[in-house]
Structures are given as structure tokens and as C-alpha cells.
Amino acid sequence: MNQIEHKYGKNVHILNDSYLTTILSQLGSPETFQPKLNSLITFIYRRLLETIVNQEFDKKTFEVPTRMTSYYPQQKYKGELVDSSQKVVCVNLARAGTVPSHVCYEHLNYLLDPEGVRQDHVFAARITDGKDQVTGTQLGNSKIGGGIDDSIVLFPDPMGATGNTLVSSVEFYKKSISGQAKKFIAIHLIITPEYLKRVTVAHPDLVIYAVRLDRGLSPQHVLDSIPGQYWNEEKGLDQRQYIVPGAGGLGEVLNNSFV
User: Fold this and answer.
1) Fewer CB atoms inside 10 A, N or C side of the chain?
2) pTM flag (> 0.85)
3) What is the pLDDT of residues 11-37, one digit of tens each?
4) Residue 218 lies in a domain
5) Looking at the chain, which runs of residues are DSSP E strands?
6) Rounded distance, CA 259 to CA 257, Å?
């Protein structure tokens, strides 16, 4: 896996993938709206899921027949394949996470035993004060399909801005859902240093994957340094706590609902 050098910890993976960052730059363009937006985000999350499966999912050595086995009965393909028996929960953090979660859920049903693949739905909304500062996350109604024992729990949420949503959501699954998860994995398009500071402190076991790190409001000497070297001086959020350069209010644009 090709990833950038940083000092945020071993569980943080920021990909060094010019193919994906090129697609992401199109997604964040002010000229990009539906239906192209859904196509681009679907494409990126398919690729992200491939990376995560290769790095994080269990593998086993299998011996499987091919179409030629009927001619050569002793000859079967033997190699390391993804263990299809492992369980996965895809968490739809509505509303920006709806499409990414569905993409992961749909493709994992082809890769794994569908009986072990589940999609949960959690409504999460920012709580802001009178100065438009995010003070927390309100978790509303949810549809949870069971426990998480021995499951990989995925949180495909495009924008890792403040980290409040992920912190609250992971805490909800740890404290309120039965069973012990195998691992928790957050899957993002863009993240900020502020997000990483918040989630790595609250949940040091959380594994994080992202296409890009945005810290555009940092001083120049910070921008010239290895990410995380001057973590306390890094800044990627504006006064409204939107990501800069970012991609705008992606949840709003994805749903064509600007509230």
C-alpha cells in the first residue's frame, strides 16, 4: 500500500494515490453536481474498499476447482483468498455516508458470504452553537440489525472534519451494541488534522483510511513539514468548521438539499 509519510500514528493511513486524488479533485469541483457526483463517489469508494480488504481482511489458503478441473481432476487453483466467512457491518451515517455505505455493502455481498454482511443505519447531525461552532453530534433514530461480535465494523463517511460524528458513532457501537468487534475502520475521502486529533485520542484502536489530508489553513512552515510534525499548529477547518480546501458541504451537494 502506497501512503504518505506522517506522524499521526500507525492506525492512520493517508493514501498516496494520484489516480484517486485526481478523481477526488473532480468530485470537489464547483462544477460537479448530480448525477456525476454519485458516480465519482461510487468509483472512489470501490477503490478504497479494495485497499482495505487487501490490508485489513482475513485471508486463507483455499483450493478451488476451475473449468479445467474436469479434464485434469488433480489440478485445482490453490492460493490465498479472502476468507468469505468473516462478518462485516457497514454503518450508514446519514446523510453524507449513505452512498458510500451502500457501495461498500453491495460489493462486500459479492466478496463474502452475504449472510455475514449487514448494513446499519444511523442518523447523525452536527450540534452547533450560536457562532456556528460544532459542539457535538446528535445521534437520532437508528436501525441496527444485531450485534457486532467478531465483526469488522466499517464507517464510510466522506468528510472527516471535526471528528465528533465518528467519535460518537464508534462510542455508540462500543457501549450500546452487543458483542466485541474485531476492528473498527473509518473510511474517508478527506480528513483534517483536527479530526485526527479528536478521534485518535477518543478511540486509539480506530483504523483510519483517507484519500487526502487537508490542512490548507496552516502556517507555511507547517505546510512545508511532514504531516503531524507540528500537529498542534496544523489547521484544516475554517470558522464554520468546514474543510479547506475541502469539497464544500458534501452531504448537502450529494442530496441536493442545502439545509
Assistant:
1) C
2) yes
3) 999 999 999 999 999 999 999 999 999
4) yes
5) 12-14, 59-64, 77-82, 87-94, 117-128, 134-143, 151-156, 159-160, 183-191, 207-213
6) 6
